[in-house]
Amino acid sequence: MADLIVIIVYFLVILAVGLFARRMIRTEQDFVVAGRRLGPLLYGGTLCAVVLGGASTIGGVGLGYVYGLSGMWLVFAIGCGVMVLSICFAGTIRRLRVYTVGEMLELRYGAGARTLSGVIMALYTLLICVVSTIACGALLSASFGIGTVPAMILGGAVVLAYATAGGMWSVTLTDIVQFVITTVGIFLVVLPAAIMKAGGVTAMKAALPPSAFSLTAVGADAILAYFVTFSLGLLIGQDIWQRVGTARSARVARVAGAASALYCMGYAAAGAAIGMAGKVILPHVVSRDAVFSAVVHAVLPQGASGLVIAAALAAIMSTSSGALIASATVLREDVWPGAKAGVGGGEADMGTMRLHLLGLGGAAILCAALMRDVLAALTIAYAVLVGGLAVAILGGIVWRRANIQGAVVSIVVGSLTTLGTMAYLEDIYASLPILLGLGSSTAAFVCASLLFPACHPSIGARWHARLKGAEPNAGILQSSSGAQND
């Protein structure tokens, strides 16, 4: 009962914070990128919150339970992606002042790739919502004995309520609350409690096989797949780019982002260690996704275990709300721009955006009820993203000769190759589909770019002007504070 009370209080606090943030919404820029005003602490906390979700928490602990220390590689790869993004690309993304990846493609190549990329990005962000909804349902179901589908509906409804109320400001403020709860719950409560319950590190070494302490037990193919899929995926995901857009300067995006990456790497090690301790304490847990909840209830008393369950829910809901906002933004800006309600000098009716959020949130809950597997859904999401869009996005940033024909052909070829190979092998976790998708996409990108004329000089001139901060965003979401780039 004490655990249930803690969770109820947590849900009420999150809803209250989300509703409070509604007061901060004045323009659509506030709704979509929190007014581009986040400093280092807010930005770093919210970036950690969005990248460390259900797969990182429940999935990471489950991988540690099955594979030992090498189970950390999935979350560690996510941290590496955040590091590369922050150091190498965050400044560029911030200076471009775009709101969607599709807008960046249109700015770089001209008209032609925005809608196509938007469809793929909308699918990716929706699948991230699905992953989080599955994880939320699994955790609530295992912890309180309620049905998985009702648990998914409950968790999804809370996320939908506060995200719809205050947009990115709701997500940002609730992310900070959730980041604090997650840090305390994972690092200061469950990690030491689980290791002590297992008898300490010495007892764990005696009880577990030597492979549990190997960094390669999960397999070289899996490690390669994690880095290719998740590190690359972090560089180009709409949910991540949208968070970069909330930073008040390029320097904040770089420095606070790098600090967030280090936090993610520590989170990876903590999750694997909790899973390893769980293997000693509870050696016969059937479902990998049930390990986290089982360990928490085994090592902590009532009330304290509720705090840690709330910490896991915090991580899950942060990712879910960020992906939901990202999906609605892509749908509105790239896939269905005709649905914009209106423009008023940067002020816009946000009713249409809220309708998008409601529709996408409902779709995510429905898909989650059908899919049920956290890591499977996450892997499919990142495979679609990386195989389809990585080359067109990153190639456009680093190669001047790239053109619209190369971008479109690479997106089509990469997407079809990745999904086709995945279906043929009937193995969504293999690295081969992503590698073949990236290889074919790169070949198509280079060949088509060389066969067709370069982009019109006016497109290149506009692109370079934006990179230098000389051209403000001409879209509907104009900045009210000017170009604050370092």
From TrEMBL:
It comes from the Bacteria. Gene3D superfamilies: Sodium/glucose cotransporter (1.20.1730.10). InterPro entries: Na/Glc_symporter_sf (IPR038377), Na/solute_symporter (IPR001734), Na/solute_symporter_CS (IPR018212), Sodium:Solute_Symporter (IPR050277). The chain crosses the membrane at residues 6-21, 41-67, 73-94, 115-140, 146-164, 176-195, 215-237, 258-286, 306-331, 352-371, 377-399, 406-425, 431-452. The keyword Membrane applies. Pfam families: SSF. The keyword Transmembrane helix applies. This is Sodium:solute symporter. It is found in: Membrane. Belongs to the sodium:solute symporter (SSF) (TC 2.A.21) family.
